[in-house]
Design brief:
Chain lengths: ~250, ~190
Amino acid sequence: MKEKVNRLAVFTKGIIKENPNLVLLLGTCPTLATTSSAFNGMGMGIAATVVLICSNIVISILAKAIPDKVRIPCYIVVIAGFVTLVQFIVQAFAEPLYNSLGVFLPLIVVNCIILGRAEMFANKNGVLDSALDGAGMGLGFTLSLTLIGAVREIIGSGTIGSGFFLGGDELAEKLTIALPFISEHPMMIVALAPGGFFIYACAIAVVNKILTSKGKKPREFSCQGCALASICQQEKCIKELDKLEKGAEN
Amino acid sequence: MGEYITILIGIILVNNYVLAQFLGICPFLGVSKKLDSAVGMGVAVIFVMVLATAATYPIQMLLNDLNIGYLQTIVFILIIAALVQFVEMALKKFIPSLHKALGVYLPLITTNCAVLGVCINNIDSGYNYMQSLVNSFGAGVGFLLAMVIFSGMRSKLEGNDKIPAPFQGVPITMTSAAILSLAFMGFGGLV
């Protein structure tokens, strides 16, 4: 029984408590770039989730076989393989999504959420736990992308549910609901680059407010906050950055 | 010559990688606190971007010839990872002074999406070899420019207690990035 509860916790922690891009502040680039509409963000989220679950499973199986020194290149190869697969699938079944995500689809390879979960979770835990962890983290990522996308879409173009990527243009048009008034006077800027930064900032501010009200400290952007900290020979890197900062202070 | 200038202006000002295309946001927000680290990171990115393009472009031609162009993602990321390692070792051995200045930032760059992004973008936009190199150089310079301006903006934010509590830290940083991005939108239509 206890084990079941733990499993559930492994799955749910990624959705809210450790939401990868609102709480842990990982994967900022795709968050900003692909949330011009709710379905666009959702598509990105699903693609990343599939890669995350598959790579977590494979890496947890291979963890013992991979020598410690070359583990990062090995993880990258596994992840890149799955990204290539997902690229093919998206291109075949959801071409509008393939076109709108553009370069950010191959860039899932360098998404720090995926490499971070491989390094921090999958290589230490069993297959089932890793799969659940990947699913939870992926779901959290998808939810926050969809949410930010929905806000930007409503304010920026005055529609709900535009750009559905499966089943052709007709269905996509049917699903699009134009809101009265806003769709006649949309605030274009929110759908463009500056709006992306601003809406994401607002979302993090809301999360920070909740975190501080619960007595937790909001995250900062730094080497320590990055999931890759242990990977890119960071210990050295962090130490030297610290030295630089201390030197600057002195 | 004219086309190279067009590419440069386009990539540095109009389609700035950080502020208009959202590539390389993590180092942009993470390393821009101090001016000297911002400059170091920017220079290292220019260096690696040009080298990575120089290496990946011929490889893509080779992949295309062999009809396995779809292996692009997997091959490019491996090349970039190997290249960064190699450059770090080479700098350490031959130019220690440069390694001291840039070495800290090099490992961070492997997983920088701007580097992989510029390699893929060059292929997608159908540039030839020279144009690709110019484009990569411009993308790096644009990154450096954004980093330098932004580190200036952040130093003004530091220690400012008039910011509402929930917005302190990351949100206000992101909001100032939004304003900078708004300013760069003014360059739209320049090319």
